[in-house]
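User: For a reading group we're discussing how well predicted structures match intuition. Take LPAR6 protein. Before you show the prediction, I'll give you the sequence so everyone sees exactly what went in.
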Amino acid sequence: MKDLRRYLALKYIQYLVLSSSNAVSTLLGLLGSAYTMILLQSAKVSSKSTAVLISSLAQADILVFLSLVSDVVLGSFGVSPSASSLAQMLLVANAHASCVLLSCVAFEAYLITFLPSESRPHRTVRNARLVSRAIWMLVAAECALFLLDDHLRASSSSVPSHGPLGLLFHISSTATALLQSLSYILGILLRIVNVYIYYKIFFSMSPR
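Assistant: Thanks. Here is the predicted 3D structure of LPAR6 protein, as structure tokens, for the group to look at:
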């Protein structure tokens, strides 16, 4: 449907084109996600693997809404560092999950365009749900590691340099630094892959 294609275009611009989020793109993204979740409940939208991925993408913006609400509510009472970190992690989880889900939609579009028959057995609703759950589990583990590292850094003055807590702090800091570097590199690779996929699809559908 045209509305779903417009929504995907909006999300690609929001997460894979813009260097950073802003108030306008965030508001448009939230409104688009709310409309898409309502639209996907319609009988006019068939239950396919692409619809499952788009639904998970739209639901990811619930994290943005929760982050905004927590900032407003906690801001009126005085925000603690841990609360601020949690709100930031919600935004990180939303951005990372959305980027990967958008790439999954792009990859599926590539399969539909170039390998429709060969990929049909794998493009199922069940597989799409498994992929979505796996993405969310990985993102949740990533954010849990970030929160653990923030907590250890906040209490670093009381953590002994030697012993189990000191070792945990060192491992957490190293793993967090590696994961942040990996996330940055993966973000660049996803942008390149998405551009390549839609470049191929566009020219394959253009009149020759």
